[in-house]
Amino acid sequence: YVEELTIVRHLPSTIAIEIREWDAVASILPSSGTSTAEAPAAEEAEDTELPEETGTAAGEAWLISVGGRLLEPAPEDSTALTVLSPQAGTQMAVPQAEETRRQGLMALLAALEERGTLEKVSSIDLSAGTEILLRYDGRFDVKLPISGDFIHKLRALEAVVEKRESYETGTMDLTRQDYDVVFSPG
Question: Whole-model pTM?
Answer without folding.
Answer: 0.63
